[in-house]
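Loading example: each entry is read as two labelled lines plus one structure line.
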Amino acid sequence: RKEVEQDPGPFNVPEGATVAFNCTYSNSASQSFFWYRQDCRKEPKLLMSVYSSGNEDGRFTAQLNRASQYISLLIRDSKLSDSATYLCAVYSGAGSYQLTFGKGTKLSVIP
Amino acid sequence: GAGVSQSPSNKVTEKGKDVELRCDPISGHTALYWYRQSLGQGLEFLIYFQGNSAPDKSGLPSDRFSAERTGGSVSTLTIQRTQQEDSAVYLCASSLGQGERNGYTFGSGTRLTVV
């Protein structure tokens, strides 16, 4: 099982739709979780951290399910500008010093 | 600086030549990371610096790859005797601590093409 897995998509959704992505991780001791957004030929940019209690930032909601070892990202009222690849990242700690990234889920929001 | 700065932004080199990629992290960020991203692939960890030390070099793919960091700031990634499979975008990131609280900030990358 890969350390961090995502459905590569693409997810093609109409403007205004709600879309959700999941990301599973294999290390149950993982400590921190993040969602990044990456536009074509650009660097990843931090979208939001994921907290145990779940957190919301405008149209974006992130949740963590430790029992099932996955994190999720929900985007409400999708905009054309949301079209990008969404990467999840996991910090395992315990001697592993880096964030491990999933390969990303591609989202296309269609007019 | 305000962000992570990488240079050059693009590099085309002939197979067998050496290349140096530079990263200037956000001022005050003690942790610095190198990743690479090949076309259609995920982010592959290469090396992590805390200050000038590299506690984790486990991602360097071969002994042709090396990196150093000086003054707790600028880092250089060197690839010797480049091969075509080294073609990728090399991304540098920095963070406070180990990034476990706030994640990383990435530079815009160096796109390396080996011909």
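Chain A has a mean pLDDT of 93.
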